[in-house]
User: What shape does this take?
Amino acid sequence: MSDIETLKAAVKKLSTQAIQAKMDLHDLSEELPVNWESIPEVAARCHELHAKLTQARKDLKAAGG
Assistant: This one.
């Protein structure tokens, strides 16, 4: 598998994970005030995944993909 194909696979995987994290954060917001204690953890996970996805997309673009 080429580097570009590897990067594309990583972007696809991170995109799926980021979408799920976004949905988890959305679901949590709809259930408030239930589980309000988990806001920092859910938000941090969402933030981390979207940061990784953004970087992976930049890496893919830089690699010419």
